[in-house]
Amino acid sequence: MKKVFITMYILLLLLPLLFVNRDKDAVTMQENRPLAAFPSLRINGKPNLEFTTRLDNYLNDRSGFRNQLISLNGLMQYHVFKRMEKGEQYRLGPDGEFNGVDGVVELYQHKNLLDEKELLEITGAFDTIDDYLQKRDCDFYYMMCYGKESIYPEYFPQSVLQYGNVSRTDQVIDALTEDTDVKVVGLKEAFTENKDKYEVYSKYGDPVHWTPRGAFIGYTELIRTINESGTEYPCLTEDDFDITITDQGMEYFGGVKRSNMSEDFVLKASSRKAQYLEGEAVIKYPSVPDGKSYDYINPEAGNDTKALVVCNSFIINYHVREDIAQSFGETLLIWSDISPDAVHWIEEFDPDIVIFESAERFEDYEGIKSLAEELR
After folding, report:
1. In whole angstroms, what is the distance from residue 84 CA to residue 63 CA?
2. Which domain holds residue 55?
3. Is there a domain that residue 250 lies in?
4. Are residues 41 and 118 in the same domain?
5. Over the range 56-68, which residues count as b (16 or more CB within 10 Å of their CB) and which as e?
6. pLDDT for 88-136, tens place per residue?
7. 86 pLDDT higher than 60
8. Domain's final residue, options 13, 46, 64
C-alpha cells in the first residue's frame, strides 16, 4: 500500500512537468502577459548567474494545469470565501456584485471633500475656459459620468462606510451649476431616476462603465442640454436602434463569471448618417493625438455645426461617439485627459461647441486648472 501511495505521489509531482507549455510565444490570457521563456545557461559568453531563478519562473509559468489551477483558485475565492482575486482592483458587493475599487473608495466614502479655496480654484478655472470659448463664439459643456458606486451604492461592499450625502463630485457639479455660466450635464439625477426601470450599470458586467442603456441615457441628456440653447439638433430615439437582451456578464481573473442579461443597443443602418473618416483626423488637424482621435462628418445633420468632444472610454468604447456624430455637421472626438493641449485642438478645429467629458474616478480637475492657466 505504501508503494502505491509513493508511486501516485511521484506521478502527481511529475505530471505538471510532463505537460509543460513549450510554445515560445505563449501568453497567459488570464494575466494578459507573455509566459516566461526558458533561460539560457550563458549570456554574452558568460555564465547566466540568474539561471536558477529564471528556471523557477519558467516552471511556475509553464507547468501543466497551471491555468486550470488559477481558475479553480479564483472560483473558490469567489464562491466559497466571497472575494475576488486582484482584490486591490475589484471587490464584491452584498450579492456578489462586481465593483471596481481602484481610485474610488475615498470618493465613495466622501473622505476627500474639497475645502472652499480648492472649490473656488476649480470653478474659477472652469470660468476661465468658458470665457475663452465665449470669445471664440463657442458654447462650452461639461459632462460628468458618475460612477457605478454613486448610482448603485447598494451594490458596493458593505464593509466600506459612507459619511454624509455629498461627494467631492457633487460639490463641483453643484458649484458649477450655481456659481458659473458653464453648462453642466451632471447625469446623476437622470441615472437615479431611471435605475429602477432600467439597468444603467450592471451587477455582474463591466464594474466601472455604464451599460448600453446607461450610455443611451447619457447621450440623450447631453443633446437635450445642448438643445436648451435654442438650436434644435437632431437626437436619436429608441426607434433608431435595434434593442436586444444579451448576456453582458464579464469574466474576471480566475474564470469568475456570472450571467448578466441586459439591453444591447445597435444603431440601425437607416439611422446612421454620419461618416467616420478613419485615419484622417491627424491629417486634417495635426495637433490631435494619433490613434486616439475620431473625425465624423454628417452632410444630413441639417447644420454645419462643428463639435469637439474631449472624452474617455465612457464615450469612445460605447456607441456614444457615433451617436453624437449623428447630431452635428462635423464631430471630432479625442480620447484624452483634459490638458493645455486642448488649446491647440480648439485653434485648429475651430469648433462651435466644446464638450469636456469626465469619469467620476478620473475627474481631471488638475487638467482643467492647467488648461485655464495656459489661457490666462
Report:
1. 24
2. 2-64
3. yes
4. no
5. eebeebbbeebee
6. 677 888 888 888 888 889 999 999 999 999 999 999 999 999 999 999 9
7. no
8. 64
